[in-house]
Design goal:
Blueprint: H1 2-34, H2 38-42, E1 45-53, E2 57-60, H3 62-68, E3 76-87, E4 90-99, E5 104-114, E6 117-128
Length: about 140
């Protein structure tokens, strides 16, 4: 009985540590946007990373993501996380972006992971202005 309990404890500890690592990847990725630091953002991604969003992005490559999406970081003032839920090799994050003109963008993203890196992100825009830099005023 002690061996089974110990195995459950060790396995549970490994799963918790893995979830914490994946949550850290998500936080680091979005903090890279806040700091306008492409190297921080890119270091969280696998080589075969893809990004999908309602803005016409359908599993775009890392290079396309850098060209199309990273320039919006100039509109990021602050990122605040409402919730990050990790399970197995995937996660959901709900967060708010405060833009440089003090508007709020509310997003939810679905992440997949492999080998300690983010392999894909599917972004779902919520209430707010859409995504930073998407309105005619910017």
């Amino acid at each position: 009985m002690k061996l089974i309990f110990l195995s459950i404890m060790v396995c549970g500890s490994v799963l918790i540590a893995k979830a914490q690592d994946e949550e850290k990847l998500i936080r680091s990725y979005l903090m890279g946007f806040e700091k306008k630091d492409w190297n921080t953002v890119a270091s969280q991604f696998s080589d075969d990373f893809t990004f999908t969003s309602p803005a016409g992005d359908d599993h775009i490559s890392l290079a396309a993501y850098k060209e199309k999406c990273f320039p919006t970081s100039k509109f990021f003032k602050k990122v605040e996380f409402a919730k990050i839920m990790v399970r197995a090799n995937c996660a959901f994050a709900i967060y708010n972006i405060t833009t440089t003109d003090n508007k709020i963008v509310h997003n939810t993203e679905y992440y997949t992971f492999a080998n300690g890196k983010i392999t894909s992100i599917e972004c779902f825009f919520g209430a707010g202005i859409g995504y930073p830099g998407h309105n005619k005023e910017n």
